[in-house]
From TrEMBL:
Cross-referenced CDD domains: PBP2_BztA (cd13692)
Protein name as catalogued: General L-amino acid transport system substrate-binding protein
Cleavable signal peptide: 1-22
InterPro entries: Bact_solute-bind_prot3 (IPR051455), Solute-binding_3/MltF_N (IPR001638)
Record-annotated Solute-binding protein family 3/N-terminal domain positions: 36-265
Family: Belongs to the bacterial solute-binding protein 3 family.
Transmembrane segments: none
Pfam families, alphabetized: SBP_bac_3
Keyword Metal-binding in annotation: no
UniProt source species: Paracoccus isoporae
A biological process from GO: amino acid transport
Keywords assigned by UniProt, alphabetized: Signal, Transport
Top-level lineage group: Bacteria
Keyword Transport tagged: yes
Length: 341
């Protein structure tokens, strides 16, 4: 008990030190001063964040980093990507190693409060699932009693897994892994019967296999996993910039602003919301320390939310994800940008 209390106190102190950094710091000034955004990302998850052979990063979460850089620095290329694991990501943010975390991280009560971090919004509504080899002959997660399961440490996945098996009076043997890459290796080597993580992550992992059809994602979704970018608590203006950059991408899709027509709409749109969004009227940029065209640049960096989704993880990509809950609120989904006014 004494040792546990000591370890808990040490971890809390480390996070409080990070909170002090945020309260005293000015991330916008840091970013503009170095002329570069430092973005904490997944160490490698195809479709969301992964480098090619030349070290060029692409993916759904990478697009968020590029949009922020475009809004703040007028150049989506001015980003340094720092790979993080499930265990290191929040420490990297709290310590100031990265300016923002765009790494498929779940918004939870404890992370929002105990870690003194702020989630700037949700860019993907997800849920935890299970993937198994087709040869295992399993069609439901409720058939996994006694199975060995690969699970990433330092994630919400661990507790969700324990809760689900306890609720269904089943047992399992965890195979702990530190990253998706390790999970893929262990799973493919047969070290575990099943791999569990966010369903989107399972789809991305399966897409990278030599024979994706040899593996199935079971139908059960056992949790809510609202994923989104994270900033340090206490630096409110920087939080506003990240939050409203994300909302700009979502709002652009709702109002039909695309990478192809954005210049035309900036000049000719009669929609007051579009005019304010693109900086044609109003002074929204000045309210967060940016110029009038910050949102316009963010949208041009990779397109609106729908464009980004379609070309990185959508149904026409190897990942093959349907919009589902991530459709616009006008289309039966949960994507809903706050008003630009």
């Amino acid at each position: 008990m004494t040792r546990s209390v000591f370890i808990g106190a040490t971890a809390a102190a480390a996070m409080l030190a990070g909170a002090g950094y945020a309260a005293e710091g000015d991330t916008l000034a840091d970013v503009t001063g170095r002329d570069q955004l430092i973005c904490g990302v997944n160490a490698g998850l195809v479709g969301f964040a992964s480098p090619d052979a030349n070290g060029n990063w692409t993916g759904f979460d990478i697009a968020v980093c590029k949009a922020i850089a475009a809004a703040v620095l007028s150049d989506p290329a001015k980003v340094k990507y720092v790979p993080t694991t499930g265990q290191t990501r929040f420490t990297a943010l709290a310590s100031g190693e990265v300016d923002v975390l765009a790494r498929n991280s779940t918004w939870t009560f404890s992370r929002d409060t105990d870690l003194t971090l702020d989630f700037a919004g949700i860019n993907y509504y997800d849920g935890q699932g299970f993937m198994v080899p087709r040869s295992l002959g399993v069609s439901s997660a409720k058939e996994l009693d006694g199975a060995t399961i690969c699970v990433q440490t330092g994630t919400t996945t661990e507790l969700n897994l324990a809760d689900y098996f306890n609720a269904n009076n089943m047992s399992y043997q965890p195979v702990n892994i530190d990253s998706n890459a390790e999970g893929e290796q262990q799973y493919m080597a047969g070290a575990c019967d099943a791999y569990t993580t966010d369903a989107s992550g399972l789809a991305a992992t399966r897409a990278a296999f030599a024979s994706p059809s040899d593996h199935i994602i079971l139908p059960e979704i056992i949790s809510k996993e609202p994923l989104g970018p994270v900033v340090r608590h206490g630096d409110n203006n920087w939080g506003d910039i990240v939050r409203w950059t994300l909302y700009a991408l979502i709002a652009a899709e709702e109002y039909g602003v695309t990478s192809a027509n954005i210049e035309e709409l900036a000049s000719n749109s009669e929609n007051p919301e579009v005019q304010r969004l693109l900086g044609t009227t109003g002074d929204l940029g000045a309210m967060i320390g940016l110029d009038a065209e910050w949102a316009k640049r963010a949208i041009k960096a990779g397109g609106n939310y729908g464009e980004i989704f379609a070309k990185t993880i959508g149904e026409e990509t190897p990942i093959g994800l349907a919009r589902g809950l991530n459709a616009q609120w006008t289309q039966g989904g949960l994507m809903y940008a706050m008003p630009f006014r």
